Structures are given as C-alpha cells and as structure tokens.
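User: These chains co-purify. Model them together.
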Amino acid sequence: MPLPMITLSKYVLAFVLAVLVTAVLGSVFSTQFVLAALQDIGVDTPFPTRLWMTAQDFGILTSMAVLVAACFLVGFLVAGIGAWKIGGSRKLWFVAAGLSAFIIELLIIRSTLELMPLSGARTTAGLLAQGIAGGVGGWIFAVITAGQPTRGGDAS
Amino acid sequence: MHLRLVVAGALLLCASLTRADVRIETIAEGLDFPWSLAFLPDGSMLVTERSGQLRVIRDGELQSEAIGGVPEVYVSGQGGLFEVILDPDFANNQTLYLSYAHGTKKENATRVMRAVLDGDSLVQQELIYTVAPWKDTPHHYGGRMAFLADGTLLLTTGEGFDYREDAQRLNSQLGKVIRINTDGSVPDDNPFVGENDNSAPIWSYGHRNPQGIVVLPETGEVYLHEHGPRGGDELNVIEPGLNYGWPATSYGIDYSGARISPYTEYESMEQPIAYWVPSIAPAGMTYYDGELFPDWQGNLFVAALVEKSIRRLDLENGLVADQEVLFDDIDERMRDVRTGPDGALYLLTDSSDGKVLRVLPE
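Assistant: Joint model of the two components:
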C-alpha cells in the first residue's frame, strides 16, 4: 500500500533535518579536532579564533550533507527494516544506524583514497565524534517519524 | 586606462616573444611517469620512472634496458622511485643517489640509496637514510635532493598527508628538509643535534610536501617549493633551524573546503617569498645559469603539474619580481624541469606516456 502523502512528507522532512543537523555537528566537531591538533603543536587557539574558524568551516556543509545523505539512505533503510523485522527500540535502531553509517562511510573513503577526507576525523576520538553527529541525526529521524510500528517493540 | 593598456600590451608582447623564440624537441617518450633527470658527463641522461625503473638516454635514444641494481620500490599512490642525483665528484667516483618510497601499505617511508654506476648497473648499493617514523599513507613523500657547497646532501620529506602536525614536531622527520653526509651520517652542525633521537638530521621544518629544491651556485641560498593543499603552494628560502609554518600557517584550505588553520602568519614562523592560490602544484625546479637563453639567466623555473606549465620566476634581490607562465600550450602535467649542461631547458611530462622535452632557442 502506498504511503500517505503526509507520512511521506514527514519522512522527507525527518531525513533532511537529520542530514542537516549531522552535517552541522560534523563540521563543528571536525573544526574542534583540527584546532585541538594545532593547539597540541603549540598554536594559540583563543575562543574568538575558534568561533571564527568554526563559522568559516561551514563552507563544507554542502559536501558534508551529500556524504551524510548517502550513508543515511543506506543506514536508515537497514534500521527501518531491522526495527520492523527484529523489533526493539526504533530510536536505538536509528541512532545506531546514523552512528555506524557515517563512521563506516568515512572509513571506506579512508581505505579507498588512503587518506581521511575530513581532517577532524583522523584520530579515533575525532572519528567517534563524527559517529556521534551521525547518531544525533538518527535520533532526530526516529523522533520525527515516531509512531511507525515495530515487531513487539517500542514504536516511539 | 591608456597606460594600463600599454602595460598590458607590453607584457603580452614580452610573453609571446619569449615563447615564440624557443623550439621544443622531444628527446624521449613512452616513459612511465618520469620523475627526475640527471646529466652524465658523457652526455647521456638518467631518468627515473616512478614505477621503479632507472632509464638511460644515450646518443639521443631511450635505451630499452633499464639500469640494473635499482632498489625495490614501494609503488602506490604518490610513492615510487623519485630523484636521481649525481655525486658532486661523479666524474671520479661514478656515485649517485636515489630517493624512493620503501615499505608496505602499513609501514612506508622515503629512503635514500647510494650506489656506483658501473656500465648499465648499479653496484655497491648502500642504504644511507630512511625517514622516521614510518607512516601508513602512500602520499606526500617529498623526495627531492640537492647538494650544499660543503658536500652535504639535502633531502625533502613530506608529512604523509594524514600526519600534517608532524611537520611541526622535531621528534618526527616528516615534513622536513633533512641534511646528511653522503654516507648517511649526520653533520655535527645541524641545528637540532642532540634534541631527541629523530631531530639530528632535521635542517628546517614546517613543510607539507616539498618537491623542488635548488641551491644557487653563486650565493649558496636554498630555494624550496612545496605543494599546498587547495591553494597555498609556497616558494621559500630555506635557512637552517627555521620553521616554515605548515600546518600552523597556510594560504590554502583543505580539499574538503575546511580551513587548515586560522592563521596565514604566526610568530617565529617564516613567510614564503611567493605563494600560489589557486594551486599550480609545483613538482620540480631548476635555477637557470645556462648560456643559450641569456635573458633567463638567474631565473628559477618551476614545473607545475596542475597548471600544466613551467613557471619562470624572475628573482631580484632574492625575491620574486615577476612570473611568467610558459609551455602551457603543450597541455601536459609537468613533473620536472632541469638546466642541461648544453644550456637547454629540459622538461619531464607526468603521464604513463611521459616525455623528456628539450627547449632550445629558435
């Protein structure tokens, strides 16, 4: 049965919001890790400078959004099927999907190009921070699309 | 307005006259990503191919057999066989030096081997230097070499791309200019001798991926260029012990579009004497002191991969007074540029059908 238009709109809105929030958080996290690495080699990074560079780095949002959207498409599809077929908390499924999809995508690019495309994700902590950004995106998607049934599980 | 037009016209005239006054001959073709060129006293030439062969051009012909005895090379990404440079006393000792990537995907580094050229083989091969620490990326090896007047050898090293902060660390030899004796030992007067285990060979630091270095014959000044990220390629005058900024300062941004650093200048870090935004991707350099082009004497020539050109840099008082884009009509990525003993300019094009080109007066 086709999805009602209102449900489809909700899914699209949820997906777009999830992608945007993850791209913004990912960019902010990446900038902080780049600055931390500079600080580690003795470069001063006072708060106004941090703020300025964080804002400057929003220039990467378009390419970040493309990256995030690509991995969320796959990750959320898997999470949706998993929640429906296996059950359990939908939120947990989508948080896990967002987190792991973005990390896996970055690792695949790292492995293919043999370099990390996002400088702030070169360390394990930086990569995990990107995962957290992805997880938040997954959570937003799950919250906005809440009410979809899972097998014997939490539909919220 | 009128004055502007006159100046623009004069500049165009100069540029077209310069280009029209030369002819370009193909000396060799079919080379697999040629990287470096050396002129032997008997008039033949050695050419490195990044895929690991050392080739000979003799009597104007590329010899089908490669030189034997070349070290095993790690060919991946930007890695492979890099520079061939002759010992200053080559005529007597037939000694040469090769820089190359060595190792595996997980552990690789730039190395230097010394060997004696005996006919068409290298003999008495001796590994004299390996950059420390190992890295696990196949990018940014540096690999250019030059001799100082005191007979010590300079080697450029890249920061391995993902290890850019190492360029600022004196316990890492990534992103540095290294100075060693020809047996690989470290000169006592290097600026960081005794600081830690890895610091002794370091001569200058804060470099990204330097792929052009020349020592000016008259003054001994060392000019070096290095690849920037997206924009920010630099030309620097190198002095021992100084910090050239990467990645604390850069005029470029990351490939993602993010900033490398909030700073283009920082205290106690040197500024480039020229930089290029957008990137031209400088990959080789020569100082022209030949006889065939008197107007070009005292100029630097920079091979540019992305711009597909040779940049002529007019130096005045040690600074770049003017620049000219040459040979972009050839439409080839340029890997290296050399001044031949005949006074001609030699170019290496960067492709699987790489060429050695000779630039002569018309």
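Chain B touches chain A through 25 residues (CB under 8 Å).
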